[in-house]
């Protein structure tokens, strides 16, 4: 497994690795969700590259950036065990070169939900992914549906900017109790970890109501809110039932819908979603 840090080293390594090439962009602290993206890439490509870069531009609080879990030693062990061919782990100034002065801003799809809860977040995401796509030139790139809106934002950007990398969506991997795997879970206290499955319970309740025939979106949002209200350690930030294509809030669920939530557990912010009616 090659581990490279600079643009030059990356270019040299890519020149000697066979195509097609799959890329798995991550912020490290790798877990089974990341592993599933690597496995999918290995199934579909001759070479799998994984990037590890905690992107300062997508954090909306400096504290959150500083406290984001990091362990490169552990991540490199996971990559080696999963058969990753190339790890790109650049320092910040290899991504944002001296004088860097460009921001990629995606339109409407980036505005609601995470875009409104974390202003500027998707500008940071779209910018770093555009740079990674430019540097790596992968045939395919793998993203988790756990970050549904991120996937939609990147898909939009890739089409609009005629980037020749195909964006491949991959299913959300969960703990046995339903909690979506996330690097941020490492920061949960034991009490917060015990409370955190409320996120999935809320989504599941709304999805079950939908499957039982409830089509009033306000009723589904209220059901999700009631789960958080019953969990003293949870602080719901938003609950949403939106058009899965546009992410505009629905009144009536008469098309595929994205149920999504953001909630804090003891200061750790978690997001998750389920698509219904798809
Ligand atoms: P992150 O390191 O959190 O930026 O995530 C890197 C990639 O892994 C993104 O495409 C995420 O959507 C994806 N990912 C994160 N958690 C999961 C999960 N539980 N299941 C599937 N994919 C995930």
Describe it.
The protein is of the alpha/beta class. 40% of the residues lie in helices and 20% in strands. It has eleven helices and nine strands. The strands form two sheets. The chain has a six-stranded parallel beta sheet with strand order 1-4-3-2-5-6, sandwiched between helices. The protein has a three-stranded antiparallel beta sheet with strand order 7-8-9. The longest helix has 16 residues, at 121-136. The model has no long low-confidence stretch (mean pLDDT 98). It binds adenosine monophosphate (AMP).
Short description:
The chain is an alpha/beta fold and 278 residues long.
Query: What overall geometry do the principal axes of the alpha carbons give?
Result: globular
Tell me the distance between the termini: 39 Å
Percent helix among the residues? Answer: 25-40%
* pLDDT < 50 runs, ≥5 residues: none
Can you count the helices? 11
From the structure above, extract its key features:
binds adenosine monophosphate, three-stranded antiparallel beta sheet, single chain, 278 residues, globular
Q: How would you summarize the topology of this molecule?
A:
Layout: E1 2-4, H1 7-16, E2 21-26, H2 32-44, E3 47-52, H3 62-67, H4 72-82, E4 86-88, H5 92-95, H6 114-117, H7 121-136, E5 140-144, H8 148-160, E6 166-170, H9 190-195, H10 198-211, H11 217-229, E7 234-243, E8 257-265, E9 268-276
Parallel strand pairs: 1-4, 2-3, 2-5, 3-4, 5-6
Antiparallel strand pairs: 7-8, 8-9
Helix pairs in contact: 7-8, 10-11
Residues 26-27, 33-34, 36-37, 143-144, 146-147, 170, 172-173, 180-183 line the site of adenosine monophosphate (AMP).
């Amino acid at each position: 497994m090659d581990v490279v840090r600079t643009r030059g080293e990356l270019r040299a390594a890519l020149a000697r690795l066979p195509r097609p090439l799959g890329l798995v962009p991550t912020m490290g602290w790798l877990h089974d969700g990341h592993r599933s993206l690597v496995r999918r890439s290995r199934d579909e490509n001759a070479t799998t590259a994984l990037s590890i870069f905690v992107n300062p531009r997508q954090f909306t609080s400096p504290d959150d950036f500083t406290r984001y879990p990091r362990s490169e030693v552990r991540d490199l062990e996971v990559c080696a065990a999963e058969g990753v061919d190339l790890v790109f782990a650049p320092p910040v100034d290899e991504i944002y070169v001296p004088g860097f002065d460009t921001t990629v801003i995606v339109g409407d799809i980036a505005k609601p939900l995470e875009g409104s809860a974390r202003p500027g977040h998707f500008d940071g995401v779209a910018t770093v992914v555009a740079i990674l796509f430019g540097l790596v030139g992968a045939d395919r790139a793998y993203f988790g549906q756990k970050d549904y809106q991120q996937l939609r934002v990147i898909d939009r950007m890739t089409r609009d900017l005629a980037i020749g990398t195909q964006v491949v969506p991959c299913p959300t991997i969960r703990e046995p109790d339903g909690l979506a795997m996330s690097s941020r879970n490492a920061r949960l206290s034991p009490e917060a970890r015990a409370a955190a499955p409320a996120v999935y319970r809320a989504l599941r309740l709304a999805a079950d109501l939908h499957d039982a025939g409830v089509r009033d979106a306000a009723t589904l949002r209220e059901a999700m809110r009631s789960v958080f209200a019953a969990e003293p350690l949870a602080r719901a930030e938003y609950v949403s039932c939106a058009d899965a294509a546009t992410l505009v809030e629905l009144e009536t669920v008469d098309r595929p819908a994205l149920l999504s939530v953001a909630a804090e557990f003891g200061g750790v912010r978690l997001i998750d979603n389920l698509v219904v009616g798809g």
